[in-house]
Design brief:
- This protein has about 220 residues and is α/β, with parallel strands linked by helices.
- It has a single domain, classed as Ribonuclease H-like superfamily/Ribonuclease H (Nucleotidyltransferase, domain 5, 2-Layer Sandwich).
- It is about 40% helix and about 15% strand.
- The chain is built from eight helices and five strands.
- It has a five-stranded mixed sheet with strand order 3-2-1-4-5, sandwiched between helices.
- It is globular and about 50 Å long.
- It starts with a helix and ends in a 7-residue tail after the last helix.
Length: about 220
């Protein structure tokens, strides 16, 4: 599996703590799965879009639908039925495409632990590896920045859900509960968070990682 060797090799010379955040390729990720328990859930869709230089790069995005043989209870959330995945790819193909797209990008997501754990289980099953990428959770970043006074100019808030942050930042939640749609929504939230972080002296990757204990 040459692409696995290529993926692993990328981390020999990857981002450092001292790297300025506007120099990092962040990959904002969302997935739709068969359930909420990442220990048993399987992937249905993977969506991602890059953020570079403080901007969303629409030309640097991907979305994959994975064929599934049954309708899971989570269909009531994401609305993706077994029939709608009929033209999807097998899980190993989707994961290969994702790893080639992801490269050594720093993964960003809302409650990203669920997505990473689910993908780690899948890459473990098929390729015997786990993701090596660093990761940041947008909820962690929001909580940390709030504790640091970054939102003192805004009315008090305590809803840190994705919908709550859309309301906070006045973002229209188009295509909610689709992998590509939620990745794009989260990317819009993330660029606002890194702008705030920079104003509060957190302009390097390492200082941003300190705000996200759920990341790695």
């Amino acid at each position: 599996m040459g692409f696995i060797d290529e993926y692993n090799a990328l981390f020999e010379h990857s981002w450092h703590d001292e790297t300025e955040t506007d120099q990092v390729r962040f990959v904002v990720l969302d997935s739709e799965t068969t359930g909420a328990d990442s220990r048993t859930a399987k992937l249905i869709t993977i969506g991602a879009v890059a953020v570079c230089g403080g901007a969303i790069v629409l030309s640097d995005a991907m979305e994959e639908t994975i064929w599934t043989s049954y309708n899971s209870p989570s269909v009531t959330v994401h609305g993706i039925t077994r029939d709608q995945t009929r033209d999807g790819v097998e899980e190993p193909q989707a994961l290969e495409a994702f790893l080639k797209y992801l490269r050594d990008g720093v993964i960003v997501g809302h409650h990203i632990g669920h997505d990473i754990t689910t993908i780690d289980r899948a890459t473990g099953r098929h390729f015997g590896i786990k993701l090596q990428n660093r990761s940041l959770d947008t909820m962690d970043l929001t909580l940390s920045l709030k504790d640091g006074g970054a939102f003192s100019h805004k009315p008090a808030f305590d809803d840190f859900s994705l919908d709550g942050l859309c309301e906070l930042f006045r973002i229209e939640p188009h295509d909610r509960h689709t992998a590509g749609g939620d990745a794009f929504i989260t990317a819009q939230i993330f660029i606002r968070l890194i702008r705030l972080a920079r104003k509060f002296g957190r302009g390097t990757l390492g200082s941003l990682m300190e705000c996200s204990p759920s990341g790695k």
